[in-house]
Amino acid sequence: MIYAVLTSPGFITRYNAHFPDKPLLYSVYVWTGLFHYAFEGLWILAALVLALGGLAREKATGVAPFSLALPVRRMNLFLIRAAMAFAQSVVLGLASALLIPALSSLVGEAYPFSQALGFGAWMTGAGLVILTFGLLISEVFEGEFTAPVVGLCSLTAIFLGYRSHTFRGWNVFDVMSATASINPQTQLLTGTFHWLDLAACLFFSLVLLFTAGAVVKTRDF
């Protein structure tokens, strides 16, 4: 992300030299290259990694009996881990998003803090479905590398499939980048959010979270 912002003047200059009739706005460059692609993809991978771990992995490494011997219910252990992963993913998303306007000033560009905060908050809210998917597979697969490989391969394939237009239709990645809520010319948030899409992401997040919790409660560790 830092590289993309710091090298933006050269990229925009070259682009505008090749397409002088369709100049590239800086706000379009930021949304297309970061909030809708690179930054979003990196946050997804980070959120998945933050969600990994849990009793299933501890069982595979032989330390699950120690955790289960603590005077804490296994469901509480799971919920604490989920809450920590959620908090870390939110901080990562918002802090990274706010770096964009801060770094933009170094290259002579301006990007509104309110826009960066809005995109970051919307991405982390809708991206809860990614986090809870990671929590679920971390409690399903025991192998040390099984859950990371399954999660990373699945999400990467789906993400790139939508970005290359191999897959079409409603997808969580467009919701995360607020695709339906931006001005088509400036690609800045218009203030009109599609709350139904966010509600759908939150609903699926709850379904995945409850499913993961059910696995934790019923599984023999």
Automatic annotation (TrEMBL):
Name the residues that span the membrane: 34-56, 77-99, 119-138, 145-162, 193-216
Keyword annotations of the record:
Membrane, Transmembrane, Transmembrane helix
The protein's name: Uncharacterized protein
Q: Where does this protein come from, organism-wise?
A: Edaphobacter acidisoli
Q: What is the lineage of its organism?
A: Bacteria, Pseudomonadati, Acidobacteriota, Terriglobia, Terriglobales
